Amino acid sequence: MPLTRYLAPLLFGLIGAGILVGLGIWQLQRLDWKESVLAQIESRIAADPEPLPQVVDPEAQRYQPVQLSGEFLPGALRVLVSQKQVGAGYRLISPFRTDEGRVVLLDRGFIPVAQKDLTPGTGPAQVRGNLHWPDDRNSSTPENDEAGNTWFARDIGPMSEALQTEPLLVVARAVTPADPAITPLPVSITGIPNDHLQYALTWFSLAGVWLVMTAHFLWRQRKNGAS
Q1: Count of structural domains within the chain
Q2: Cis ω on the peptide bond leading into residue 177 (within 30° of 0)?
Q3: pTM value?
Q4: CA separation for the pair 97, 69 (Å, rounded)
Q5: Could you state, in chain order, the average pLDDT of each consecutive group of 10 residues for the chain (227 residues)?
Q6: Which is a Gene Ontology cellular component entry for this protein (predicted)?
Q7: What is the domain extent for residue 164?
């Protein structure tokens, strides 16, 4: 059989595999970039505390560490969440008045569903935490049940209206004195997706499959031509 009969499928197979390998390499480059971004975020989260900003800039101040002195005020909003190895529960969002007189939203942490009716303590406290503008809501997130005090996303605007605070959220890392019934859920990089390695492996696997299929096709062509 003339060799030219194999040329077109061979080129098709090699070009296709080359494209898939290129996509895998691109995902590895994206992985390096994402790991660098995550390292910067971790460094920002763990930096020295700064004062609460007077002018809010969510991009520049995202994850900004803060240390507050003041008091918890009455009231708490419950945000439905789920914790690994614990199950469903709620984040408790309370109003916190600083010594300077500012009142902000304070994400105190997690309580299990069984403690739904817990009334969190009020009074003086010291808080270490981070400013956060969470992106909890997506197309499948239900609307908040404000009347029943069950929230499905930390919507800062509506929450600040409900608790009469500034539209500014601090997520607690540590609270003194600690409330043993509430487990802080500090800001971390855990929830930030980084799937580039899996994507790279997928593209490389597809390239391997593509080459195997090409080799099998050429073998069949040769076998049929010899028969």
Answers
A1: 1
A2: yes
A3: 0.78
A4: 8
A5: 69 90 95 91 90 90 94 96 84 96 97 89 95 89 92 95 96 94 90 88 94 87 68
A6: plasma membrane
A7: 64-176
